[in-house]
């Protein structure tokens, strides 16, 4: 199953492009599901149908689904209250009724991640098109599974579960209550769910696609998004230049705007595979308008980018980790080694990555940014590196 994640700046027309892409695939006979977690039914407005918590058939081969974040949050909170009943009673806490529960910030993102996982695991469709939130929220969404799993492992290490039979005795000896069984079971279940979502995002059949309107604001957004995606080991397969004006525009202000768009597209073409989608002269509504948009199809491209480790021990006595970071600025880069992890900061974006096994036995010997690639030098630690005969 192919998964296409589509995002872009707010107002760039990413939902329209997602809907048109899904519609074009279905027209070619590909069983397609288009997924969105927007509170407002923007996807339904574009498609000309009403979408909601139950999947709806738009036309033959195309299904649209907008999962209900409120219902999912209500179910999760109810299950949590049941598992933590003893603790809540001990604290004298009042239970929340289902009718008074409203989703907290982040509920939409978690609902979308769960729906994404369920859609992939169901294998009912050949193509999943996901209308992600605007770029800043989408980038945080893509990082969420990895970050939450890291937090869970730090707060409740799995190896501690091996001693669960000793927890009552340890609690009596320490004089403090030990974590209950349900807490570890909940953490383990969350870890499995997050791992499934993380696997979908990292899968080579998952592609990330950017949508932006060519111009100064779009150029800034694309530059920022490209760097953030690169930090996660991803690269857009295609950059959709949306709402492109005709080159032969005669009006003075339209001609100036068309020239500005052309300049932005030329700059993008130095880095990305740019596919223009022409402006219809009005906001697309309904399948007829979507059919008129010449959106790029879905091929066998991948968004995953390798971070290779080059062996230069024979020549320079070091291993070099190559991390592509297009658009990174040297003065905005920062590296911190923390145990077997490396904290990489590029501008406003940060990622904590586990070191490859060979590099864990090394010390950081320096780093340099060359041609959009961060090269980190690692020198073998004599106390940890295998000896030679």
CATH topology label of the largest domain = Rossmann fold
Name of the CATH superfamily of the largest domain = P-loop containing nucleotide triphosphate hydrolases
Strand order of the largest sheet: 3-4-2-5-1-6-7-8
* Spans of at least 5 consecutive residues with low confidence: 169-178
Average pLDDT figure:
85
The total beta strand count reads 15
**Domain tally:** 2
* Radius of gyration using CA atoms only: 24 Å
Question: What share of the residues does DSSP label as strand, in percent?
Answer: 15-25%
Distance between the termini: 49 Å
Instruction: Please identify the top-level CATH class of the largest domain.
Output: Alpha Beta
Number of DSSP helical runs? 11
The SSE order reads EHEHEEHHHEHHHEHEHEHEEEEEEE
Class of secondary structure makeup: alpha/beta
Outline the biggest β-sheet.
Answer: 8 strands, mixed
**CATH second-level architecture of the largest domain:** 3-Layer(aba) Sandwich
Helix content: 25-40%
Shape: globular
Give the arrangement of secondary structure elements:
Layout: E1 2-7, H1 14-27, E2 32-36, H2 42-47, E3 56-59, E4 62-65, H3 69-83, H4 85-91, H5 107-122, E5 127-131, H6 135-155, H7 167-174, H8 181-202, E6 206-212, H9 216-231, E7 239-244, H10 252-268, E8 274-278, H11 287-291, E9 309-312, E10 318-324, E11 333-338, E12 341-346, E13 349-354, E14 362-370, E15 373-380
Parallel strand pairs: 1-5, 1-6, 2-4, 2-5, 6-7, 7-8
Antiparallel strand pairs: 3-4, 9-10, 10-15, 11-12, 12-13, 14-15
Helix pairs in contact: 3-5, 5-8, 6-8
């Amino acid at each position: 199953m192919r998964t296409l994640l589509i995002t872009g700046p707010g107002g760039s027309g990413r939902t329209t492009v997602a809907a048109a892409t899904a519609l074009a695939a279905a027209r070619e006979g590909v069983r397609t599901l288009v997924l969105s977690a927007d509170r407002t039914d923007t996807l339904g407005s574009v498609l000309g149908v009403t979408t909601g918590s139950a999947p709806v058939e738009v036309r033959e081969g195309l299904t649209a689904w907008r999962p209900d974040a409120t219902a999912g949050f209500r179910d999760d909170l109810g299950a949590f209250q049941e598992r933590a009943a003893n603790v809540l009673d001990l604290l004298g806490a009042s239970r929340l009724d289902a009718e008074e529960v409203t989703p907290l910030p982040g509920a939409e993102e978690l609902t979308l991640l769960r729906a994404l996982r369920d859609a992939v695991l169901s294998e009912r469709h050949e193509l999943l098109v996901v209308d992600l939130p605007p770029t800043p929220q989408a980038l945080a969404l893509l990082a969420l599974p990895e970050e939450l799993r890291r937090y869970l492992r730090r707060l409740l290490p799995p190896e501690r579960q091996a001693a669960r039979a000793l927890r009552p005795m340890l609690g009596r000896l320490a004089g403090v209550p030990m974590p209950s069984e349900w807490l570890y079971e909940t953490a383990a279940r969350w870890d499995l769910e997050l791992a499934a979502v993380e696997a979908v995002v990292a899968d080579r059949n998952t592609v990330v696609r950017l949508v932006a309107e060519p111009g100064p604001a779009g150029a800034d957004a694309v530059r920022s998004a490209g760097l953030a995606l690169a930090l996660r080991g991803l690269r857009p397969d295609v950059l959709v230049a949306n709402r492109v004006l005709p080159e032969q525009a005669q009006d003075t202000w339209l001609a100036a705007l068309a020239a500005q768009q052309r300049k932005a597209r030329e700059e993008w073409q130095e880095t990305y595979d740019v596919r223009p989608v022409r402006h219809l002269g009005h906001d697309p509504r309904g399948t007829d308008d979507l059919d008129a948009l010449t959106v790029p199809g879905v091929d066998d491209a991948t968004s995953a980018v390798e971070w290779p480790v080059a062996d230069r021990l024979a020549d320079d006595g070091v291993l070099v980790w190559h991390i592509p970071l297009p658009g990174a600025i040297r003065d905005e880069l920062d590296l911190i080694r923390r145990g077997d992890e490396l904290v990489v900061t590029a501008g406003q974006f940060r990622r904590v990555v586990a070191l490859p096994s060979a590099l864990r036995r090394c010390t950081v010997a320096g780093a340099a940014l060359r041609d959009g690639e961060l090269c980190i030098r690692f020198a073998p630690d004599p106390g940890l590196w295998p000896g030679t005969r």
